[in-house]
Design goal:
The complex is a heterodimer of chains A (787) and B (230). Chain A is α+β, with helices and mostly antiparallel strands and 787 residues long. Chain A is built from 26 helices and 20 strands. Chain B has 230 residues and is an alpha/beta fold. Classes of the chains: A alpha+beta (787), B alpha/beta (230). Chains A and B meet through helix 13, helix 14, helix 22, helix 23 and helix 26 of A and helix 1, helix 2, helix 3, helix 4 and helix 5 of B.
Chain lengths: 787, 230
Amino acid sequence: MRAAWRVARAAVRRRRLQTIVIGVVVGVSTATMVLALALLTMAAAPFDRAYAQQSGAHLVAGFDSAVVSDVELTRAADRPSVEAVAGPFGQVTLHDPTSDTMFLPPTMTTVGRADPGGPVDRVTVWQGRWATGPGEIVLNRTPGQFDGVAEGARITVSGGQVFTVVGLGDSVSASADAWVTPDQLTAIGQTDTQMLYRFTHAATAAEVGAGQAAVTAGLPSAALLGAQSYLALRQEVTSELGVYIPFLVVFGFLGLAVAVLIVANVISGAVVAGFRNIGVLKALGFTPNQVMAVYLVMVTVPSVIGCVLGTVLGNVVARPLLTDAFEGFGATDLGIDVWVDVVALLGMPVLVGLAALVSALRARRLSAAAAISAGSAPRVGRALVVQRWLSGIRLPRSVSLGLGIPFARPARSALTLAAVVLGVMTVTLALGVTMSVTAYRNAVDPPVADRVQVMAGGGGPGPAAPVAPDSGPQNSGPPDSGPPRLTDDEDEALLRSLPDATHVVAVSRQSVRTVGGNQSVGVSFYRGDTAGLAPRVLKGHWPDGAGQVAAPSRFLNRRGLAVGDTFTVEMGENRAQVRIVGISLTNSPNEIFADWDTLEVLAPDARADSYLVQLAPGSDQRAYIDGVEAGDPGLAATVATEGTSSQAVVLISTATLLTVILGVVAALGVFNTVVLNARERRRDLGMLKSIGMTPRQVTVMMVTSMGALGVLGGVVGVPLGVVAHKLVGPAMLRAAQADVLDIVINVYRAPMLVLLAVAGVVIAMLGAFIPARSAARTPIAEVLHNE
Amino acid sequence: MTSAEVVRLTGVRKEYSDSVALDGVSLEIHAGEAVAVMGPSGSGKSTLLNMVAGLDRPTEGSVVVHGDDLGKLNETGLALFRRRRIGMIFQFFNLLDDLPALDNVALAAQLTGSSAAQARKRALELLGELGIAGRKNIYPAQLSGGERQRVAVARALMNRPALLLADEPTGALDSRSGEQVMDLLLDLNQIGQTLLLVTHDERLATRCASRLVEVVDGRVARETALERTP
């Protein structure tokens, strides 16, 4: 075996290009495999993983401090069904928090915790630090959420207390809106006590219910104020962010398929290309097993190196990608499971070995004479009818010769074609997803060219805006702007009177409660030119009188409501029955829209807290803003900006990255095929050049050979990509509890499909060009005299 | 270069990294001549042929063929030169296995832009002249060695070259096929085709060539006018 090892080592060294190609292809394919497996793993249960990472609470319970003591709560939690417990923690509800730099909910559940760790609900502090002294507060925010919250912001609550935000934490258990030190909480005045439980069995609502019953057994009946099961939270979070999952799963499988195909193609090609050497070795006395061993070693050495490097690369690439895609679920510091690396490190060499073995077994069976003559002695051609036909067609001969090359190695061509098909399919799907996301965003938040947003901070009665919109400036007026100097009507008149204003709406965002359901709902009341500036209505009509509302499907689906249904809302002492008259093209589960007349019933003294102004195209927005602030210094005007959805950004960037990776892998497959074809056809290339084929014609011939596969790949890959999009798109929308809209699903247009089909040609040509150029430089004399 | 000169090599030297293949070779070949280059293995005769065919470039000296100074041509220029000015025959035929005899021959014309129909018509004429028109649809693997070399000769003649280069044209043939090829080359020369043969085969040289150039250690050791033997 020593001789076999020596020959194999020599082959690895001598065939540098082939060795490098194998190493690179296996490396990139392994990285793709790691990424694909990591995506599939994470996509399987992102919430559960995040929950496990933080040791999330199965039950978050609030108790009345006046009714039950900490000792009683601790004793009650000592049950066999309780796996872990955290608390008791002091809890209080802060009312009417305001800040100059961000929207805040009308109330904030605030808990006193000395540190973010513990056996249950280990809060991830992803920005700043934990609260350690008086006046410090940590807000609960999901990483990547762009809502203007920042370290150093100051929050004033009812009663005049002021807190400084020292950190942003993320609790998957959603155990609080904010945390302060226990001493600070005592100083505020504790009203409730929070307990966090993990149960030994909590897979179903019944099991969580049983756990809750166990930990509250023996406590005074009025002790428990409320409890939140993690199952409800999972439902909520999954519907918010589950939109990624169908997309990521499809990309994961595509990545795996491309990686496997390319490796099989490269390895089998490398062995086939070495048939002649196999014959020489046999002639020298190498046994069939030794020959097989030589070739297995020859491909295994670069493959193992490529595999190790690819695994490292996959980890490096996957970490930020997974973080972007899944941090919204609460998972942080996302790594790759060890088993993924193990599967890649073991699986890829096994795949390489199998691919090599199939070809090596063929080589093993070949007689020495047949193997030696491979590539030099004339052989019976393949697909002769096609070659003959191509000889006679009206195309430049270099093109028709190139078109015939794939038929000479049908299996190799089929594998290459499959990789190109998957590459085109990926591009088509990724572009479709990007366009769908864009179409959805444009539908929900139409482009806002020539618009000015005007904030009237310190508005009328009721809490500040309870629902942060997805777009527009996220402030309620600049610091020190103070309240508006003019009345609501005067401000609207001012905005209409300034030059270039064409349409104006006034908006008041208020929090109301639904009678019966006892739920808090955000309502945006509109006044003015709603036709062009209010959200679009998908079905029915925009509210045009008192007692009418429009709501998004997600709101209706959650509550089992439909257009035509009525419900009652109350605000302070006032109530109004409202009828659903339209479905708005928005996707908030808790925000609906109503006409100003309804606000007159619920809060007659309320004023607009913001205005949206449409200016004439091309007008001077800066001059308009200056005019607004001069007319009423209490107004803060800014240029309305496009909505920046973190989901949209992540989806589009993920799609782009995955497309590039899979496109590169597919192009590498083509590259390898051309390298092998050129190597096998050295004699033919030399002959063609000897009879006058120019270097350009050689390049054209070799590029055409793959271009043909590219065209076919485009023709097959585009419909497959469109079909995948038809499946993935609606699944994503359903995961987001959004309506499956035609404008979001039917995004492809005929010219675009043609261009997408060209993607196959581009992938093929990119992969083919360099080795084709290299083939064009083949030294003729050496080839023709030595073969 | 006189109008009768087809090839002129002047002080051609060719160095490889560790050896000198040609060392100051000068040679002229006139139209209608049949020149045989002989010499031991490694003497530089194949390198000499490569220089004339534009398959390789000299380190020093100049190679002019049919008025083209090959040293001044880029790769594309050399390809066009080979296409228009020369035809080549190889020891191992170098036919495309995937194409039948007719299309192998037609290929040379198709590269120049001729239509498939025109190229096939001319190819069929040549195959007929070489006596293998009946084998036009046969693929190389099913042809005998002699037949393959005739196909290769037909391909070499396809674009009516000024110079026919043959590198060991009988080296891979049995004696009967070799005889046929020799007759073919002789016939071609007798109708005016200029030939440059590189061979080990003294019989081929004496039968087909009008002049013998002997190359030893990269130099022209001797030039001899030959009386062709039947």
